[in-house]
Structure formats: structure tokens, C-alpha cells
Q: What sequence folds into this?
């Protein structure tokens, strides 16, 4: 008898152990989360196939409205049964989490054979069964009177949060419209704050504004990424960047936000130790960026979550600390950051099931971030007003000090002017006599110097003219043939241009161009142009050398006593006297000094040797010069 009783109890226990919570829909069914009716199983090996899951007996009832697996590298299986009593609407299974890496739905077909619909961020956005919204949506494919068991395979690199609900067609598209409206309002706030403060920055060049503008931009893009809008509209064909962008923008929000706090609150000056702490946090986020780009997504997200909480508390503590120290600009910053933290807290409590899943809790993070950027903009404006007030006070004090200084200086000037007038009169009488004598002496000296120079130049004019005329003639004689050759080249360019647009093959064009170049004797033409240009350059250089020597020799613009380079004067003199030597008199020059000996031959003016400021001895051989 006891054996039968135990068997009966075992059957009852077994019946309850394998009893399945069902989701029942009827004609009065309204969209709702079905987490309390979902059974879950964690595949830590990531190796189990669907056939293994069908026979698995380790599923456990979730018991909460939202399925939250935290950060894990495992594959999670969700199992739920839906019984359709008499609901004739077209119903869908919606996974309200747009950043899951894999979301695969296994459903039984009419032959009770399971089919799969694959989706997730590892696939391009266009491959989804429905891509109208940002969440994952699948057909329930359940007729009135039917009952089916579904399996969801979920895997994610970030926090694996999977709110699952059943919705009908009208409710789904009503929700999409509502989400788009709310997100559009949010984008409008972000865009207005971004553009307005960008214009302010361009006007006043206050460095805090540029970091605020960047922070606002990254906040908006981060929220758009977490809600799936960037994957849908900006890079739908790039699943890798869609996954990486979550870590990229999350880290950039923190890096730029910390830098904005440093600049806005002048942390380096007001709290040097906190400045070092904040810089360490920035370095940590840079490390996270490198870690995520290397592919360690799960590890990066697991590290980011506690870091985000820590930095949020640190920033809040810094704001409270500076506000208590009397920094007025910390008021709006503290309110703005508190609003963001409140939004984060509400959002997290919603995910943990503490708060209900509704529009307020779903969009609390958007509301909080929008309030944050708006209040930070007010904080910047208030800071500018404080600066303006302090500046006006400082300017008023400066004006008073300047006025007092001006009065003192004015009184001192009156006394000094009287003394200066007396002394000036005495000096003026003395200076007038000296100035007159100096003027007369200088005029006489100038007249004498100019007379001597002009006399010398007059004797050399004919020789210089002849000497300059030779290279000039060499230049002018080369200009005409150079002009002729250049015109030939220009005509050749025009002909080749016409050949280039002819409707013939490239090989034929090249052949015709080569024949034309051969007709022109192109190589000889280039050689001739080089020779003509070389001759013109040589004539011009010789002319410039003669003119330089003449200028140095004459020194018409220098009548003051000053140090001069004797070597330079002698060399310019020999250049000018070259015509008198008539290329038949050879001049040997020996320059003796402590360092080097050199020889100069005037056949071709080539001056070598060290040019020193002390005297040198020149020995001339041949006819006297």
C-alpha cells in the first residue's frame, strides 16, 4: 500500500514539475510582456544545437516580466507556449531590445517541424523579417484554436536583456509611431542645443563650449545607437561597426564629458587632485576603446558597467564639492547631472523589474540625457553671465585706478615740463651753434666724396659700357633663335593636342606623335634651347657681376666712416678694371695670411681664398695698372 501511495505522489510531483506556463490570447488580449511565462536555459558551452535544446529538461521558469541575463558570453534559450483561443488578429513576437547580437526564433510549421528565422546585429539590418522598427519582430503564425511552443536563441556582447511581448498589428505600429515621435523630440532637443552652443562657441571662443558641443553630439549619437536608430539609418550594412559603435560612443561620451567638467569647473586650478583622478578615468576609457576594437566586447562591457557607475558618482561628488565651496556655476551642472542619474536609475530599475515597463521608464534615459544637455547649456550661459559681471566689476575698478594714476601723472607732468623748458632753452642755444657747424662740415665732406667718386666713374664709364655691352649682345643674339624654338614647341603642343582628341587608338596616337617629333628633330630642338638658355644665363650673370662690382666700387650711398672689407673692394676694382687690362695683361695675386694662400687669375674672374678683414699683400706681375 505504501508503495502505491509513493508512486501516486511521485506522479503528482512529476506532473507539477513539468507543467508549462502558457500564454493565452483571446479576442480581448492586449499587448503585454510575457516574461513570467518564459522558461530559460543557459548554454555556457555555446555548442548545443537546437535538436539538443528540444530534449533538454533543464529549462527554468523565469518568473519576471523582463528576462535579464546581465553581461555574459553564454547562449540563452527562451521557451514559451502560446495558446490562441479565438484571437483572429495578426499577432507578432517582439523582442524589445535592439542591440542583441543574435535573436533566432524557432517555430513549428504545419507539419510540426521547427523552422528558424535568424536575426540580430550580426546580420545587416535589411535581412530582418520586419525592418520597420528598431526592435526584433517575428510572425507568431498562430491560428485561432492552435497552441505552439516557441524557442528564442539569444546571444549578446553587451548586457543580455530581452523583454519579450506579444503584440497585434495595430498596437505594434502605434508603438512605433509613438517611439519615433518621442525620439524625434529628443533629437530636436539635442540638435538645438548642439547648433545653438556651436554658434555661441564660434562667437566667443570659450573652450568649455566646444567640449559641451562634442558632449551633446556624443550623447545624442549614443542614445540613437542604444535604441537602434543608427544601425537602421546610418550604417545598416555594417554589423561590425554597429556593434563597435556602442563601445565607441559610450566611451567618447565619458571622455568628452569628463573633459567638459574639467574645463567648465576649472578642476586643474580648483581641485588638482580631482583633476588627476578624472584624467585617470579618461585613460581608462581610451583603454576600453582599444580593448573593444580588438574584439573583446563582452569583457569591455563587463568593465564599462562598473566604471560608468563609478564615474557617475565621482562627477556627482565633484559637483557637490565645488558647489559647497561657493562656485556658482556648479549649480546648474549639479542639477543637470542629477537629472541624468535619475534617468539612469529609473531605467535600471525598469530592467530589474522593480518599476513597471511603460513609456516613462522606457524613455527615462532619453528624458534624463535631454534634461542634462539642456541644463548644462543653462550652466554655460550662467557661467558666461558670471564672467561678464566679474569682468564689468574688474573694468570699473581698473577705470578708477587709471583715473587716479592719470591725475597723479598730470600733476607730475606740470612740474617736469617747467624744469624741462628751462633746461631745453639752454641746450637749444648750444645745439644751434653745433648743428650749424656740423651741417657745413658734412656738406663739404659729402661734396668732396661725391666729386672724387664721380671723377673716377667718369674715367671708367666708357670701359664699363663696353664691358657690359659684350654679355648683353650675347643675350640679345640668343633671344631670337630661342623665340623661334619656343614657337615651334607651342605649335607642336597644339598639334599634339589635336592628335590627342582624334578618334583613333592610343597606339596610333603615340605613333603619330613620335613621327611628328622625329620630323621636328625634337631632341636637337631641346639641346639647342638648353644651349641658348645657358648662353643667356651666362651673359646675365656676367652683367650682374659687373654691375655689382660697380656698385661696391662707387659706394655713392655711403659717406659715413665705417669698417669695410678690403678684399671685397679690391676684387670689385679688378672686375671694373678688367676692360683696361684688355685680356692681355695677366695679374697674379698672392694673398698671405695665417690660414691659406690663394691665386686669382683675371682671365676668368674666379675669386678664391679666405676673405679676411685684416690687410693682404697683392703682387702684380706684368704692365703697371
A:
Amino acid at each position: 500500500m505504501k508503495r502505491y501511495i509513493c508512486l501516486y505522489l511521485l506522479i503528482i510531483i512529476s506532473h507539477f514539475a513539468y507543467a508549462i506556463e502558457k500564454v493565452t490570447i483571446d479576442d480581448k488580449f492586449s499587448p503585454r510582456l510575457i516574461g513570467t511565462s518564459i522558461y530559460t536555459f543557459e548554454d555556457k558551452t555555446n555548442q548545443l544545437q537546437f535538436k539538443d535544446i528540444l530534449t533538454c529538461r533543464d529549462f527554468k521558469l523565469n518568473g519576471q516580466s523582463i528576462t535579464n541575463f546581465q553581461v555574459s558570453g553564454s547562449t540563452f534559450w527562451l521557451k514559451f507556449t502560446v495558446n490562441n483561443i479565438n484571437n483572429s488578429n495578426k499577432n507578432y513576437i517582439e523582442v524589445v531590445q535592439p542591440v542583441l547580437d543574435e535573436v533566432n526564433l524557432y517555430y513549428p510549421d504545419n507539419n510540426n517541424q521547427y523552422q528558424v528565422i535568424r536575426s540580430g546585429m550580426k546580420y545587416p539590418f535589411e535581412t530582418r523579417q520586419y525592418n520597420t522598427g528598431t526592435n526584433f519582430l517575428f510572425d507568431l503564425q498562430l491560428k485561432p484554436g492552435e497552441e505552439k511552443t516557441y524557442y528564442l536563441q539569444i546571444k549578446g556582447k553587451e548586457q543580455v536583456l530581452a523583454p519579450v511581448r506579444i503584440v497585434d498589428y495595430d498596437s505594434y505600429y502605434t508603438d512605433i509611431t509613438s517611439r519615433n515621435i518621442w525620439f524625434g523630440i529628443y533629437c530636436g532637443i539635442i540638435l538645438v542645443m548642439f547648433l545653438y552652443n556651436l554658434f555661441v562657441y564660434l562667437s566667443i571662443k570659450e573652450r568649455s563650449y566646444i567640449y559641451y558641443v562634442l558632449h551633446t553630439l556624443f550623447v545624442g549619437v549614443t542614445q540613437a545607437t542604444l535604441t537602434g536608430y543608427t544601425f537602421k539609418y546610418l550604417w545598416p550594412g555594417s554589423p561590425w561597426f554597429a556593434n563597435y559603435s556602442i563601445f565607441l560612443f559610450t566611451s567618447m561620451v565619458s571622455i568628452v564629458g569628463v573633459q567638459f567638467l574639467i574645463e567648465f569647473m576649472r578642476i586643474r586650478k580648483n581641485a588638482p587632485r580631482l583633476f588627476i583622478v578624472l584624467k585617470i578615468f579618461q585613460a581608462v576609457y581610451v583603454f576600453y576603446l582599444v580593448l573593444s576594437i580588438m574584439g573583446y566586447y563582452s569583457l569591455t562591457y563587463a568593465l564599462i558597467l562598473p566604471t560608468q557607475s563609478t564615474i557617475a558618482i565621482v562627477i556627482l561628488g565633484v559637483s557637490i564639492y565645488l558647489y559647497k565651496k561657493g562656485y556658482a556655476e556648479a549649480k546648474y551642472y549639479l542639477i543637470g547631472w542629477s537629472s541624468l542619474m535619475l534617468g539612469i536609475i529609473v531605467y535600471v530599475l525598469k530592467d530589474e523589474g522593480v518599476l513597471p515597463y511603460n513609456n516613462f521608464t522606457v524613455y527615462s534615459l532619453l528624458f534624463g540625457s535631454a534634461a542634462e544637455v539642456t541644463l548644462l547649456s543653462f550652466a554655460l550661459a550662467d557661467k558666461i553671465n558670471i564672467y561678464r559681471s566679474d569682468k564689468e566689476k574688474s573694468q570699473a575698478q581698473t577705470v578708477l585706478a587709471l583715473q587716479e594714476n592719470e591725475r597723479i601723472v598730470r600733476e607730475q607732468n606740470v612740474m617736469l615740463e617747467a624744469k624741462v623748458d628751462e633746461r631745453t632753452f639752454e641746450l637749444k642755444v648750444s645745439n644751434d651753434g653745433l648743428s650749424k657747424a656740423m651741417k657745413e662740415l658734412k656738406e663739404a665732406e659729402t661734396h668732396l666724396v661725391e666729386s672724387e667718386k664721380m671723377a673716377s666713374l667718369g674715367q671708367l664709364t666708357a670701359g664699363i659700357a663696353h664691358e657690359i655691352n659684350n654679355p648683353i649682345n650675347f643675350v640679345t643674339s640668343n633671344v631670337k633663335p630661342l623665340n623661334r624654338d619656343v614657337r615651334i614647341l607651342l605649335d607642336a603642343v597644339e598639334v599634339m593636342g589635336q592628335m590627342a582628341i582624334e578618334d583613333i587608338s592610343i597606339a596610333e596616337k603615340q605613333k603619330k606623335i613620335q613621327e611628328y617629333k622625329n620630323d621636328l628633330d625634337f631632341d636637337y630642338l631641346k639641346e639647342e634651347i638648353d644651349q641658348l638658355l645657358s648662353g643667356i644665363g651666362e651673359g646675365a650673370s656676367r652683367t650682374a657681376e659687373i654691375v655689382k662690382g660697380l656698385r661696391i666700387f662707387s659706394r655713392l650711398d655711403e659717406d659715413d666712416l665705417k669698417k669695410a672689407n678690403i678684399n671685397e673692394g679690391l676684387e670689385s676694382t679688378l672686375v671694373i678694371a678688367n676692360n683696361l687690362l684688355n685680356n692681355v695683361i695677366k695679374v697674379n695675386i698672392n694673398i698671405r695670411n695665417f690660414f691659406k694662400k690663394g691665386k686669382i687669375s683675371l682671365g676668368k674672374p674666379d675669386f678664391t681664398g679666405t676673405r679676411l678683414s685684416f690687410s693682404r699683400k697683392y703682387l702684380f706681375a706684368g704692365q703697371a695698372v
